[in-house]
Design goal:
Number of helices: 13
Strand order of the largest sheet: 4-5-8-6-7
Radius of gyration: 20 Å
């Protein structure tokens, strides 16, 4: 790890100014991802800007009945907040599934959004990786790719996005707010994470020098009846090999509203809009759930070792939506 400067920002304007003063600057929240990458030599910042004292630690209702979450809120506090558990339970479940209590206590909402892939080749400086070194190649395609992407990947990168929280946020149409030297801005989560294409190193649409200030969850009655399920290779905390965030509103046996997002299958949280369209207005039963999942996964492009994810994700969708439908019928 090379030498770096350290500054503590006390307000958003100060953080923006510091970030703009040094092209090698990085924002430091809990450090649960950035510090590991610095130790591995993947990240080599010249300046760390500590943002934990920024006044962005509130969770509050918006005037229209949504929820606003500040960027420095810890993952533990967000998961435990009674309004999150009541109105967006899949989000609380995703956070609890994402990491141990010690890590959740340190990790921040803003940092969780911006964490980098856990692809082994990305963290290995001896191997080519277009996400780390553009134009060097993707070692995973011909190498170890069992846990890699089946949707939205490209010949340049097959890494997956690691966040559990972001999958639930995608299902609930979250909006990410940020601040730059030019002023504030907002990005819906669908636009926040970019398709991998031929520029896998450009992961978000955040403007240069932007500081994430918070997340807004729009009001969504279906979100109160939601669930997050994660499959991992060991029972202790591990990154997902597949996950589903779902919300379901059923009336008289028919689907009135459904929200569905997949994790660990693409370079970004994958909103399953094809499946949602197939389900809306139709029966809330296992056959319909399986057919909708199949329609979404028809676009999957698998590698020799990760084709199992197609079956895994179809089964996950059926299991989660069936659970929600049975709860609605009680």
């Amino acid at each position: 790890m090379r030498e770096f400067g350290y500054e503590r920002a006390h307000d958003v304007a100060g953080a923006v100014a510091l970030l703009g003063s040094d092209p090698g600057a990085r924002l430091l929240g809990g450090g649960t991802n950035l510090v590991d990458l610095m130790k591995a030599g993947v990240e080599r910042p010249t300046l760390l800007i500590d943002v934990q004292e920024l006044p962005l630690g509130d969770i509050e209702f918006t005037p229209d009945g949504g929820l606003r979450v500040g960027a420095t809120v810890s993952n533990s506090d967000l998961a435990a907040h009674p309004d999150v558990r009541r109105h967006y339970p899949a989000l609380a479940q995703a956070l609890l599934a994402g990491a141990s209590g010690q890590l959740r206590n340190m990790a921040t909402v803003g940092g969780n959004l911006l964490q980098r892939t856990r692809c082994g080749y990305f963290a290995d400086l001896s191997k080519p990786c277009n996400k780390r070194t553009p134009g060097s190649g993707c070692a995973a395609i011909a190498g170890e790719h069992r846990n890699h992407a089946i949707l939205g990947a490209s010949d340049h990168c097959v890494a997956t996005h690691p966040s559990d929280m972001a999958v639930a946020l995608a299902a609930f149409d979250a909006v990410i707010s940020y601040e730059t030297a030019e002023g504030p801005g907002d990005l819906p989560i669908d636009a926040f994470y970019l398709p991998v294409g031929d520029t896998p190193h450009i992961e978000t649409a955040l403007p240069a020098g932007a500081v994430v200030t918070g997340i807004t969850l729009p009001p969504a009655p279906a979100a109160a009846h939601s669930h997050y399920r994660k499959v991992r290779e060991r029972a202790s905390y591990a990154f997902a090999i597949g996950s589903v965030a779902a919300a379901l509103d059923v009336r008289e046996g028919a689907v009135r509203d459904v929200r569905l997002a997949f994790g660990a299958v693409a370079s970004r949280p994958w909103r399953a809009r094809t499946a949602e369209r197939a389900l809306t207005g139709g029966p809330a039963d296992a056959d319909a759930f399986a057919a909708a999942a199949g329609a979404e996964l028809a676009a999957a492009k698998t590698l020799p070792a990760n084709g199992y994810k197609v079956t895994l994700m179809r089964n996950l969708v059926v299991a989660v939506l069936t659970r929600l439908a049975e709860e609605a019928a009680r």
